[in-house]
Amino acid sequence: MRVELLYWDGCPSHPQALADLEDAMRDAGLDPGGIEVRHVGSDDAAAAERFVGSPTIRIDGVDVFDPGDEPTGLTCRVYYLRDGRVSAVPDPDDLRDALRRAHHTSEEPA
Fold first, then answer.
1. What is the pLDDT of residue 72?
2. If both were cysteines, with which of 4, 5, 32, 104 could 22 make a disulfide (CB 3.0 to 4.6 Å apart)?
3. Tell me, what's the pLDDT at 104?
4. In the chain, which ranges are continuous DSSP H helix?
5. pLDDT of residue 34
6. Segments making up each domain of the chain, as ranges
7. How far apart, in Å, are the Cα atoms of 105 and each of 13, 35, 59, 60?
8. What is the pLDDT of residue 64?
9. Are 10 and 43 spatial neighbours (Cβ–Cβ below 8 Å)?
10. Angle, in degrees to the nearest 10, between helices 92-107 and 14-27
11. Which pLDDT does position 105 carry in this prediction?
């Protein structure tokens, strides 16, 4: 399972998102040392990566939080916590659930 955190320097929330992702991986029994942290530094790179804002978390190339029709670009991403509040980082429980689902799927026989 490939886990990526993509970020843009102009958005200060990526260190918290990385810490939350590491915790969620540990909670799911996964090694957080395998997280690929990647900087997106230009609009061209954002378009090539389908990057809709910082931070973006992907598992096996799929955005954990469906961005819908959000445009690509160098911007800060907005998430909604389970209690409805707006946040600069994903809800940690949503991260844990996504990792568990992906890990379970990757262990299923082909």
1. 96
2. 32
3. 72
4. 14-27, 43-49, 92-107
5. 94
6. 3-107
7. 29, 18, 11, 11
8. 93
9. no
10. 50
11. 67
CA 15 to each of CA 76, 81, 100, 101: distance values in angstroms, whole numbers, following the listed order: 13, 18, 22, 24
Burial 14-42 (b: 16+ CB within 10 A, else e): beebbebbbebbeebebebeebeeeebee
How many angstroms separate the CA atoms of 73 and 58, rounded? 16
Low-confidence ranges of the chain (pLDDT < 70): 105-110
| Distance between CA atoms of residues 36 and 24, nearest Å | 15
Residue type, 11: C
Specify the amino acid at residue 59: I
CATH number, span 3-107? 3.40.30
Count of other CB atoms within 10 angstroms of residue 65? 17
CA distance 88 to 17: 8
Residue carrying structure tokens 């804002």:
53
Task: Decide: helix, strand or coil at residue 94.
Answer: helix
